[in-house]
Write a structure and sequence with these properties.
The strands form five sheets. A six-stranded mixed sheet has the order 1-5-4-2-3-6, sandwiched between helices. The protein has a five-stranded mixed sheet with strand order 8-7-9-10-11, with helices on both faces. The chain contains 14 helices and 18 strands. It is globular and about 65 Å long. The protein is an alpha/beta fold. Helix 5 runs parallel beside helix 11.
């Protein structure tokens, strides 16, 4: 089990667990591993979200990179996919996003991207950990004449805005309806400036909420993890669509005009069907995770589309896509990867694709989302001791309970248990046709797991 990196980089409580000292060390080790084969002075981009701890971690990260001899371009507050896009476009050697995504403000995190604008694979993270733990760490120090230089380049965000605009403006402008309107919830996070700029430039009629970040209110009862306020806003203001991003802007969920959620599985079905109609769905395949709804499987079968499923994590979705030449994949949580545009989940890009399809087909969001019939799901998060969260599959009593529930489903449901990669949690998910029965079984299983793993 890795000591520092989880399923989405390093994520801990800022300044106590994710200390400036640790960040400094992670920067030096990361700069070494990611650029050791370069024949030039490495350049690394740094972007962050709106958390109060962002500049603290940015400063420590910058110091670590400069100490190793790498040059740094500081992008300021920018969505994660914007950093990924600029890394590839500018041919930087690597980049870092300082964010804890959908978590509350006290958390922060470090996500590395390679020179291709993609999250680094597990083996590279493991190599960074080896350097951190090795006795050679103190040797990673630049000669006084080779210390790196940092520069503020927030102007580069305009390049990302232009990319988003040029990708959709022709179709959106051609099909725009005067009565079409969108509510945008930017979660007081990294998209709070960029999203509004993009929507303005595309001429989309919009209203924006939760766009006054103060360093502490990121994801606070807003954004893609808290859709209640957006649902109410859409209905009260008679909007055509609601869009919600998460704190770092790599996720997008939507709300139809009636206030019903459009999650990542529905988005994958809508996009997959649209791309297939336009002969652009590569290898006729959608990539999702094992957490995707059984309704997505049924949709794929009925529409002769191949559905490949990976373990949970958008990095594993991307790995499968790259390995086999697919161009559409994602997670139920709203990480949607469209490789024809950007090599990572991109919330703003996802919302623009949905808007383009709605306008082109001239249908309501509620009508479009009927493309998939979802099975009810019951998800319970169980707090457990962090050092015990991987032991659920070794406990005979827990495994016996899981098998009993699966037998009760008689082939019309499933049980998925997984340990969170970023928090001391076990996620218990039941999926089937009888919601009341699932609620009872999920609570019983959660109670057993809490008893056995604490």
């Amino acid at each position: 089990m890795r000591k520092y990196f989880g399923t989405d980089g390093i994520r801990r409580i800022a300044n106590t667990e994710l200390t400036p000292e640790l960040v400094y060390r992670v920067a030096k080790a990361g700069a070494y591993v990611l650029s050791k084969h370069a024949e030039h002075t490495p350049t690394i981009l740094i972007g962050r979200d709106t958390r109060i701890s962002g500049t603290l971690i940015e400063s420590a990260m910058t110091a670590g990179f400069l100490s190793y001899g790498a040059n740094v371009k500081l992008l300021g507050v920018i969505p994660t996919p914007g950093v990924a896009y600029l890394t590839k476009k500018l041919k930087a050697d690597a980049s870092v996003v300082i964010s804890a995504s959908h978590n509350t403000y006290e958390f922060n995190g470090i996500k590395y991207f390679s020179n291709k604008g993609m999250k680094i694979p597990d083996d590279i993270e493991e190599e960074i950990e080896e350097i951190l733990e090795s006795g050679n760490f103190n040797e990673l120090t630049a000669h006084p004449s080779k210390i790196g230089i940092a520069e503020y380049r927030e102007d580069l965000i305009d390049e990302y805005v232009y990319f988003l605009r040029k990708s959709f403006e022709e179709n959106i402008e051609k099909n725009m309806k005067s009565e079409f309107s969108v509510a945008i919830d930017v979660a007081n996070g990294a998209t709070y400036k960029v999203a509004e700029t993009v929507f303005q430039k595309l001429g989309i009629n919009y209203k924006i909420i939760n766009n006054s970040p103060d360093g502490i209110n990121i994801n606070e009862n807003c954004g893609s993890t808290h859709l209640e306020s957006l649902k109410s806003f859409v209905k009260e203001n008679k909007m055509s669509l609601g869009i919600a991003y998460d704190g770092d802007g790599d996720r997008c969920l939507a709300v139809d005009e009636e206030g019903n959620e459009i999650d990542g599985d529905i988005l994958l079905a809508i996009f997959g069907n649209y791309l297939k109609e336009n002969k652009k769905l590569k290898n006729n395949t959608i990539v999702a995770t094992i957490m995707s709804n059984l309704g997505l499987n049924k949709f794929a079968k009925e529409n002769n589309i191949q559905l490949n499923q990976t373990k949970v994590g958008d990095r594993y979705v991307l790995e499968e896509m790259l390995k086999n030449g697919y161009n559409l994949g994602g997670e139920q949580s709203g990480h949607i990867i469209m490789l024809d545009y950007n090599p990572t989940g991109d919330g703003i890009l996802t919302s623009l694709m949905l808007i383009q399809i709605l306008l082109e087909k001239n249908v309501k969001a509620s009508q479009l989302s009927k493309i998939i019939n979802k099975y009810p799901q019951m998800l319970v998060n169980v707090k457990v001791k962090n050092d015990k969260k991987m032991l659920y599959h070794e406990d005979d009593e827990i495994q016996k309970k899981i098998k009993h529930i699966e037998t009760e489903f008689q082939g019309n449901g499933r049980v998925i248990i997984r340990a969170s990669g970023t928090e001391p949690l076990i996620r218990v998910m039941l999926e089937g046709q009888e919601l009341k029965k699932m609620e009872k079984e999920a609570q019983e299983l959660a109670k057993l797991i809490k008893l056995k793993l604490n």
